[in-house]
Predict the structure.
Amino acid sequence: MTMDSNSMTMPMSDPNAWATAMNNLGMPPIGITGQQLMPDFDPSLGMMAGITPLNPMMPGLGMVPAPLSQDVPVIKEIIHCKSCTLFPPNPNLPPPATRDRPPGCKTVFVGGLPENATEQLIMEVFGQCGDITAIRKSKKNFCHIRFAEEFTVDKALFLSGYRIRLGSSTDKKDTGRLHVDFAQARDDLYEWECRQRMLAREERHRRKMEEDRLRPPSPPPIVHYSEHECSQLGDKIKDDAKFPEAVRVLLTWLERGEVNRRNANNFYSMIQSSNGHIRRLTGEKSQHEKEMEEAKEKFKTALSGILGQFEQIVSVFQAASKQKAWDHFSKAQRKNLDMWRKQAEEIRNMHNEQLMGIRREEEMEMSDDDMEDSPDSKDSEDSGVSQAEALKEENDSLRCQLDAYRNEVELLKQEQGKNQPMSSEEDNTHSQQLSFLQQALQGMQKQLLKMREELKQREAELEKSLEDKQQLKNQVQTLKEGLQNLQNTHVMQEATVSTVVSCSQEKEGPTEKNPPSPVHSEREALLVGIISTFLHVHPFGASIEYICSYLQRLDTKINTSEVEALLSRLPCTFRQELTGVGASLEKRWNFCGFQGIKST
């Protein structure tokens, strides 16, 4: 809503404007303290003396002033309509309360209407806010107004708090105080939900278009089997760079069921070529493992160097904390040095734990390797012999396969010589079969040579392991002899010491025997220490069940009888007392070591 350029402006910061408005309504202007703002108010005249009343029908007066920014305070003014006049509320009063705005609100509640107000009057007052689609008026001085747009509701709320007067009448039925608030209507909510669903559909469509645009293209379809494609695929399988793509095509052909009796040799050759990549992949894996070990070793070395530097820094702080240098620092400097020393020690300890963890992992791996490698020397020998026998059997089977392939080649050559007038297609198939068989023979020969070399290497390793075993046996024998000599010398020394002690005892006379110790093992000594600490923090004592429940958290094998027997053997350290009367009688054990040390 906007106001005409020639409209009358009457800022509410001026108290005279508020007095004029109250005077036109026939009420004396009263301030917050209850005193009249204008001493010359004449109630019989209905206006202030010497001031001409405003004409409500004066042309050029607008409805609502233009909206201002939130930083500038809004100044409400008198609004003149055709058949009524609106007077602004007191600016010193708080703004009228409103409910939470419903989603998509286009309907407002208007209360405080004059009793003689009509729909034409409501249309005249609120029609300047925006287009009105419906007015529902009640008989109890209120109505509901539904606008065409949502932003017009804010303009209608601007009129909340205004006093309305019909014409120039001062009758109570022709005056009222407007209260405008948000109203919740089903039509507004339905339109808002429809709009939200439409926006959601547009957002889903936009996201789908974006996903379709960013989706990677589908992989190209795999070609069907043919002789030409088979020859090309055989070359690709032998190439290390093209092997992953080629083996995927081979897998698809096998799953489709492209194998038959005529092309079985072709597929066998491709599968054999695929099997040849296992050695390459194993070598790559070992190379990567070696690189990883080198990286671990490098990291461990660097961590050790960093830890050494941290140790030097901590040593510097410790040297600065000594009396010779510490007295020359100020209080603030000492505080900073102490804080820095603690931080350096924490970081040093953290790095030290990390390095120790790495070393523990390496020791565990080495122990696992030892457990796997040295269960028994006989097992290693048996495994070496079994491997050699397996290699020999595989060598024999390869020889048999090679002979079979040679016989097949000779038969094919004989059939080709007998059936020279055969069709060109059969000649091509025979030639391809021959080429594949030759390739297979070459591959078998290479594998045979490799197996022979591996057999020689295994035999050499077996001989070396036998020599190492003999050397280890000799070392074990020498160690046993040295251990036997050490035991003999130790026995002789003990004998000489016992003789010397017996002689000295005979000279000194009989000595008193030491009484037996009540603590029989290191485990019982640990239990005594833990129970003493536990009872020290319980000055009123604790029952044997309470003590055992605490100890069983540390070791589940501890029982009550064992603990009670141990406490009974130490009367100077632990004392049992009875507390309570009658049914509440309870036995409690107390720590009395500080008193018992004086009596022992």
Summary: The CA atoms of residues 145 and 219 lie 62 Å apart. The mean pLDDT is 78. The longest strand covers residues 132-137. The longest helix spans residues 424-508.
